[in-house]
Amino acid sequence: MTPTVLFIGGLGRSGSTLLEQALGELDGVQGLGETVHLWNRGVQLDERCGCGQPFSACEFWTRVGDDAFGGWRSLDVARVEWLRATIDRTRYIPLMPVRSWRPRYAALLEEYVGYYRAIYSAVGRSTGASVVVDSSKHPSLAYALTTGGLDLRVVQVIRDPRAVAHSWTKTVRRPEATSEAADLMTVYRPSRSALLWDSHNLALRALPRLGTPTLCLRYEDFVADPAATLQQVMSFAGLDASVLPVDGNRLTVSPQHTVSGNPARFRTGEVRIAASDDWRSALSRPARAVVTALTLPQLHRYGYPVTDRSPEPR
């Protein structure tokens, strides 16, 4: 039986890694990281799993590959990557709900989603997990998965776009990278990250119209009250919310088998859940003004003030 898929959507640098780490400490939950990158970064490049081992040496992912495909060597990774480039794009989101109008597109979409379905099912069988967490974040993958007959539930993670914009200007190294050419995470100008914040959240906001259960979660509310937020997410995922993985604002993280994501996925031990507000002083006023102007309509929708003051709890 395929487990429930809890898909974390939104623009990166919004707290999704921390949320996934917290959920991954729960019994019956298996965090997978950003599976959208599994095919290239895991299978092809053999980058490190969140447990610290190279993908090819990780017992967890070896079992999953054996169960899903008869071994990773039996998988045509080039085919999956081609399908991703052909199917999993923001511009194709409008086609997914009406795929029956284009039989060839529908067939390719079904094939592409089938690979993810195989992964989720194999994880469920090998671990007994009732919920898998996929933090791929891409709205286009969320829309693709809605067509796959899965018990898909989407958590839309949102953070103040000015904080997100500041984070995307930082130079962040990828310690798992196997080549110098890929050892830095992408950097965006504030205007670019603002437009991506707009497009990601607009797309995810429309998912409930397709019948996909969607929970909107603000990063600021999560760090202000981790227990209450996690209870909400756990109930949404169909989990017992009586036993929480946090003690106040402290979370103890064990090694997890996340295939890709923010470098913070490698941290273990006690993690303090706290707001990061360095953007208020580090992001220039012109940059803040640009981001605010580009995201203004959605700022109001999600309860973010136009000024720099902290948002009211929701």
Task: Report Rg.
Answer: 19 Å
Mind summarizing the main beta sheet? Answer: 5 strands, parallel
In the predicted model, the low-confidence regions spanning at least 5 consecutive residues are: none
Task: Compute the number of helices.
Answer: 12
Report the end-to-end length measured between terminal Cα atoms: 36 Å
Provide key terms for this protein:
single chain; 314 residues; alpha/beta; Rossmann fold; five-stranded parallel sheet; three-stranded antiparallel sheet; 8 strands; globular
Structure, described:
With 314 residues, this protein is α/β, with parallel strands linked by helices. It has one domain: Rossmann fold. Helix content is 42%, strand content 13%. It is built from twelve helices and eight strands. The chain has helices at residues 16-24, 38-44, 59-69, 77-87, 103-127, 139-145, 161-168, 190-205, 219-224, 226-236, 279-282, 285-301; strands at 4-9, 29-33, 131-137, 152-158, 214-218, 246-247, 250-253, 269-272. The strands form two sheets. The protein has a five-stranded parallel beta sheet, sandwiched between helices. The chain has a three-stranded antiparallel beta sheet with strand order 6-7-8, covered by helices on one side. Strand 6 (246-247) and strand 7 form a beta hairpin. The protein is globular. The model has no long low-confidence stretch (mean pLDDT 95).
Sequence-ordered SSE layout with sheet pairings:
Layout: E1 4-9, H1 16-24, E2 29-33, H2 38-44, H3 59-69, H4 77-87, H5 103-127, E3 131-137, H6 139-145, E4 152-158, H7 161-168, H8 190-205, E5 214-218, H9 219-224, H10 226-236, E6 246-247, E7 250-253, E8 269-272, H11 279-282, H12 285-301
Parallel strand pairs: 1-3, 1-4, 2-3, 4-5
Antiparallel strand pairs: 6-7, 7-8
